[in-house]
Amino acid sequence: MQAWLQILLSSVSLFFLLLLLTRVMGKRNLARITPFRFVCYIAAAVIAAAISLQLTRPAVGLVALSVWVLLPIALDYLSLKSKWVHDLVNGKETVLVKHGKIMEENLLQTRLTGEELLRELRSKNAFNLADVEFAVMEDTGDISVFMKSDKRPVAAHDLGIKTAPLAEPQTVILDGNILPEPLASLGFNTEWLGIQLETIGVSLDNVFVGQVDSSGDLYLDLFDDSVQLPQPKIKEMLYANFEKVQADLTTFSLETQNEAAKQMYAEHAKQISRLMAKLKPYLLR
User: Fold this and answer.
1) Which tens digits make up the pLDDT trace of 79-127?
2) Are residues 218 and 210 in contact, defined by beta-carbon separation less than 8 angstroms?
3) Integer Cα distance of 259 and 270 in angstroms
């Protein structure tokens, strides 16, 4: 067999073998892997390239490749069972800033200069060192920043405002095709989706992406961007209906001459008003 054909066959075989082995080693974000994991990936790639180019005997190369793949998997398993093994393999987080004060000794330990630290803080929108409560270097090399309580953005919880829990929106249309499974997971069917498209006045062929959120609002992105679509107002319309009912009950209580009916209408209007106060944070965004 010619040399180029041998290299071709071995390269194709090793390509799929390496693809399988990297999947076995687990999913990792390459921008956030630890140095040890990065070295393992590089070593496996170099060994596979050496085998592919026949720079080493296949048997010897496969043994070395197995070592660099199986040992990280074994250490990952042991890291799940032992904190000591985890810290030994991946390292520990290091506090760089504490109560607005830079920990110079820890900065020297991580071999990070003051300018580099300030640059990392600025990338996290922390331009004033005095605003930082803690800054920690993770085992991946990322720096996590925790701002002081009076410098953090105000959330709805801080203001005592109730907000509706949000579920993950489901993509029900993709590239002009209906996706039945996510549509069914929301409790809807293709007939409902067809009615929504007809109400909006959009053809299915013109829809690139269609998503439905937990409240039943349908968002569409069209191929033709010049078409202006109305924004979904399902929750706003529901709240408006409550307002109309409450106003009608109040009017009935004022117009009727029957005292029993007047009291009944007024009481129901109060109940609707209390219900609206509870539902307002969930229906109006």
Assistant:
1) 888 888 877 777 788 899 988 888 888 888 888 888 888 898 998 888 8
2) yes
3) 16
Contact indicator for 146, 135 with CB cutoff of 8 Å: yes
Rounded to whole angstroms, the Cα distance separating 140 from 219 reads 38
pLDDT (tens digit, 9 = 90+) per residue, 40-82?
888 888 888 888 877 878 788 888 888 888 888 888 888 888 8
Structure-token pair, residue 127: 């331009």
* Residues 6 or more apart in contact with residue 108 via CB below 8 angstroms: none
Residue pair 170/212 in contact by the 8 Å Cβ criterion = yes
Cα–Cα distances (Å) from 212 to 50, 170, 208, in that order, read: 50, 5, 14
Residues 204-249: tens digit of each pLDDT: 888 889 898 877 778 888 887 777 766 556 677 777 888 888 888 8
How many residues are present in the chain?
Answer: 285
How far apart are the C-alpha atoms of 159 and 26, rounded to whole Å? 42
Looking at residue 152, the DSSP 8-state letter turns out to be S
**Residue partners of 250: CB distance under 8 A and separation at least 6:** 265, 266, 269
**Are 265 and 245 a contacting pair, CB within 8 Å?**
no
Instruction: Give the separation between CA 210 and CA 174, rounded to whole angstroms.
Output: 7
- Residues 114-122: contacts with CB within 8 Å, 24+ apart? 117/143, 121/97, 121/145
